[in-house]
Design brief:
Layout: E1 4-6, H1 12-25, E2 39-41, H2 45-53, H3 60-68, H4 70-77, H5 79-91, H6 97-105, H7 107-113, H8 118-129, H9 134-148, H10 155-168, H11 174-207, H12 213-227, H13 232-247, H14 252-260, H15 262-268, H16 271-286, H17 291-299, H18 301-306, H19 315-322, H20 327-330, H21 337-344, H22 346-353, H23 358-369, H24 374-382, H25 384-391, H26 393-399, H27 401-410, H28 414-421, H29 424-428, H30 433-446, H31 453-461, H32 463-469, H33 472-486, H34 492-499, H35 503-508, H36 515-530, H37 535-551, H38 553-566, H39 573-588, H40 597-607, H41 610-615, E3 618-619, H42 630-637, H43 641-645, E4 649-650, H44 668-721, H45 730-787
Parallel strand pairs: 1-2
Antiparallel strand pairs: 3-4
């Protein structure tokens, strides 16, 4: 992140004062040591303009900072920089590559700064588009694409198209032609159908005949983007024949580009073109000598078959599709891309060829399933409901039930199981009530694992669908227990989804002769959530009512309104807040209970709740007076224009009104243990200090005694040697002996002081180690006390 400080635009005197304050007090919030990306703009306008005009003379660090933030500098300078902008841009034409890249990245921001800056920006981009470095060309092209979004009408063609055509006609530079093709593809949708048919499409086709293979390849890459813009007739007469001609090339790069964009051309082609031309072409690609081209052609096969009418499919296409699981075909591309494409397009191919081919395709389905690849098996499991719809209940029971048994019982895999469970309710629709009831055991089985909450979430999402496909007796006996159990799940997301689906069961039981008994059971179960001592179950009750008040308003008013309003006095603030949000959302969507006076009264009461005010950051005032007549109620429900135009006010709460956390007082036993621990530490420190002093004194005495012994021995030797010396020199010898003794005494004193320093350092180290041990003992003592 960049820390940018821009001086305010004030008068000259005030500006100098602000600059001085910035110099003294500005600091970088996120700056690290050696960070050169922090930038402070505290120069006046003349100094800043002078720096930009002399950016080539700066150090590399300053040049990088000013270049990365040149758009901010231009905005700060205003008209002064706009007048000098061509001169500033001229400095970057001869800069190093890294500074040119930084400068180009800022050009779109400079373009947006002023209308007068637009023409210089386009001119400098046209210069960089002709640069010899491909990276700079492509970056300049990206900036030109961003700028094109701001151009209106003919400006795009008048300002950008000449630059692109000039690059496309550069016969000496291959990179210029490639970048021109990239710009044509990206900007074709902005140029519109007229310019695309008049210029862009012909330039692409012309460069598609280029002598360089990379240019021809890029022309094929950009062809689908241009083909989406031009008219249908132009595509059929010009671009489609051009594509077919490129497919006949022997060059591997061009052929690879053709097969990679094959499906995009299929989407734009007519049925006759698919049958007459593209069918033969994909068969030719599948027999190509290049392994990659052959593999991509097989990867496109399933989607191509699905795009052709049933009666006009070439039999060889079906034969090749059935061979996609063979070892020589599936290994053409890495990571089993061919097998995955076969599994992904299996329902579409089955839908196209019909049930008559099921026996052949069933073998392929089993072969794909036996690969035990998680990605492939998950795709097949997620498409089981579509396959079952196509082949019917009888064949699905015979051929697909073993797959389900493998998924749920024999070899369960969480990802594969998730893919199957997500659409299980759709799968059950086609079967009889007996089979559906048997499948409900699966729901009992898979929702027991508390760790797999994603699967429970997927089951909760399908509760409303299951409420409509099962008979009322099965709903009452088997599905409702699952639903209410999910409403008490330990994961909040599962509870929320399951609670929002309870309303659907009222619709599922209404045609049953026992609908009143079933309805009573559901209502009593819901009220049990309202009376629960667990707060999140009361929240689940509110989530249930939020949907029921909209879809089953009669049941809500008669049985659930009073229990819901009682939660306005709940002790838990999150419950009251959820009730407030439920009523507010119901009023926003203009639900069926928006005129209920009791709801309005509770809503106004909760609006004044101090806790809710602290949770709701911005709360518009809603004051509705309830009158006896229904006409006045409806009028009061419509907010006046004055209330609508009022800005939301921020509700303020005093700090004293916010509940504070209470800190418990420290236990007495912990205080006693801490005092005993401190006394013990002091005693240990005194004992260690006495021992260290005794040891140091003993060592010092030994050194002194040894030095004294050495001195006596030296004196005896010296006396023996000097017995023959004359008496007149005796005085001089005595003086020498005294000076020698003084020197030895000073040396002994220095050794003692050094030894004392070493002892003091040793004592400090031992005290530090003892302090660390004492800290650990303190932690252990506190833990023992807390356990006690």
């Amino acid at each position: 992140m960049y820390n940018i400080k821009i001086s305010p635009k004030l008068k000259s005197d005030d500006r100098s004062i602000m600059n001085q304050i910035l110099k003294e007090e500005a600091f970088f919030l996120n700056q690290k040591q050696g960070d050169i990306h922090s930038f402070v703009l505290d120069d006046d306008q003349d100094q800043l303009l002078n720096k930009l005009l002399n950016v080539h003379k700066m150090t590399n660090i300053d040049k990088e900072n000013y270049t990365k933030h040149i758009s901010y500098c231009v905005r700060n300078l205003g008209q002064k920089s706009i007048d000098k902008l061509p001169m500033i841009m001229e400095k970057y034409k001869n800069e190093d590559e890294r500074f040119q890249i930084m400068f180009i990245e800022q050009l779109n921001l400079i373009y947006e700064a002023s209308l007068q800056a637009q023409q210089p920006v386009i001119q400098i981009l046209s210069f960089f588009l002709l640069n010899s470095i491909l990276k700079i060309k492509e970056l300049a092209g990206q900036q030109l694409t961003k700028i094109a979004l701001h151009l209106q009408g003919d400006e795009k063609g008048n300002q950008l198209l000449p630059i692109i055509i000039k690059m496309a006609h550069d016969d000496l530079n291959q990179d210029n032609r490639i970048v021109a093709l990239q710009l044509m593809g990206k900007l074709s949708s902005m140029f519109g159908i007229q310019l695309s048919e008049s210029f862009i499409a012909f330039e692409v086709m012309s460069l598609g005949e280029d002598s360089k293979q990379d240019v021809r390849k890029e022309a094929v890459n950009q062809l689908p983007l241009v083909a989406k813009v031009v008219g249908k007739d132009f595509f059929n007469k010009k671009l489609f024949p051009f594509y077919m001609k490129r497919c006949k090339e022997t060059n591997t790069k061009v052929k690879t580009a053709c097969v990679e964009h094959f499906l995009q051309i299929v989407e734009l082609s007519s049925q006759n073109q698919k049958i007459a031309d593209l069918t033969a072409q994909i068969l030719q690609f599948q027999n190509d000598s290049n392994k990659y081209v052959k593999g991509v052609a097989y990867r496109c096969l399933a989607r191509f078959i699905a795009a052709i009418e049933k009666d006009k499919i070439e039999p060889r296409l079906i034969e090749n599709y059935l061979k996609m699981a063979d070892s020589d075909i599936r290994e053409l591309l890495p990571e089993q891309q061919v097998m995955f494409a076969c599994a992904y397009g299996f329902p579409a191919v089955l839908q196209t060829v019909g049930v008559a081919r099921w026996q052949q395709l069933h073998k392929l389905f089993n072969h794909l399933w036996k690969q035990k690849n998680e990605r492939i098996c998950k795709t097949l499991a997620a498409s089981l409901h579509e396959v079952a719809k196509i082949i019917g209940a009888e064949k699905a029971e015979i051929d697909l039930f073993p797959i389900l048994e493998t998924i749920f019982v024999k070899e369960p895999n969480d990802n594969v199981l998730m893919g199957c469970v997500k659409n299980l309710s759709q799968f059950l629709k086609i079967f009889s009530d007996e089979k559906k009831e048997a499948f409900l055991e699966i729901f009992f089985f898979i929702q027991r694992d508390l760790k797999k909450w994603r699967i429970r979430e997927s089951i909760a999402n399908q509760l409303d669908e299951m409420a409509l496909i099962f008979p009322a007796e099965i709903i009452f006996r088997m599905i409702l227990p699952i639903a209410f159990k999910l409403c008490t799940d330990n994961v909040a997301q599962v509870r929320k989804i399951a609670s929002s689906k309870i309303y659907a069961f009222f619709q599922g039981i209404k045609d049953s002769p026992l609908s009143e008994q079933y309805q009573t059971f559901i209502i009593e179960s819901m009220i049990g959530f309202q009376k629960s001592s667990v707060f999140y179950q009361r929240q689940s009750f509110i989530q249930m009512c939020s949907k029921i008040m909209q879809f089953e308003d009669a049941i809500f008013q008669q049985h659930l309104l009073k229990p819901l309003l009682e939660l306005a006095q709940d002790k838990v603030q999150s419950v009251r807040y959820m009730l407030y949000m439920a009523i507010e959302n119901h009023f926003k969507i203009q639900g069926k209970q928006q005129g209920n006076p009791q709801l309005l009264e509770v809503f106004n009461q909760l609006s004044n709740d101090k806790i809710i005010k602290s949770l709701v950051k911005y709360k518009p005032t809603l004051e509705v007076q309830v009158n006896e007549t229904e006409s006045k109620e409806q009028e009061n429900l419509q907010p006046s224009s004055e209330v609508i135009n009022q800005e939301p006010q921020l509700e303020e709460i005093d700090d004293d009104e916010i509940p504070q956390r209470q800190v418990q007082e420290e236990p007495e036993i912990l205080k006693q243990l801490r005092q005993e621990k401190q006394e013990f530490i002091k005693k240990q420190e005194e004992i260690q200090k006495e021992q260290l002093e005794k040891e140091s004194d003993a060592k010092l005495n030994e050194q002194v005694s040894q030095i004294t012994i050495n001195e006596n021995a030296e004196k005896n030797e010296f006396n023996d040697e000097t017995t023959q010396i004359a008496y007149d020199s005796s005085d001089q010898n005595i003086k020498n002996n005294e000076s020698q003794e003084l020197y030895q005494f000073e040396q002994l004193q220095g050794q003692g002081e050094q030894q004392q320093k070493e002892n003091d350092g040793l004592q400090q180290n031992e005290e530090y180690e003892q302090g660390s041990q004492n800290d650990q003992k303190e932690i252990n003592t506190e833990e023992d006390a807390s356990q006690l």
